[in-house]
Amino acid sequence: MVGTSGSGKSSLAQRISLQLGIPHIELDAIYHQADWTPMPDAEFRAAVTELIAQPAWVADGNYRGKVGYLVWGRADTVIWFDLPRPLVMAQIIKRTLGRAMAGRELWNGNRERWTNLFSLDPDQSVIVWAWTTHAKNRAQYLSAQADPAYRHIEFVRVRSHREAAAFVAGLGAQRKPA
Asked: What letter does residue 19 receive in the DSSP assignment?
């Protein structure tokens, strides 16, 4: 599952996981250690390699440069949650504000920082990150669909919440026994 930050890929991956009865691997939860410290690359690769060795799973995250080649090498399907930039921005602002106000833990003790809401640095603000990476992600995933290295992958481009709901509902016939 790929898509711009704030598109809803983790939520959609969780719904797919539940519908199919398979594990959900949230790459952000592995990568972002306490105090937002990135997991060292070798450890990240090892952790992801172990998780994707399972016979079935759904993973979400945009880590193509770090572990994407591992994930995509074992994947049979890549779902690209490609929502329009205005919708992604509305969602990520609402989500980030809600998380900051509630003080909700994301992973490994990490919480949204109020100061990051006002930062213009994409490495500090997930909102700015989403804005600056939206077009790049779109170009990257369009290109990947035509890459012969990924001919073993079925690409599914989901462009709305309605399409996402229909996709998940259509998975009912594929549900594996628990």
From this structure: H
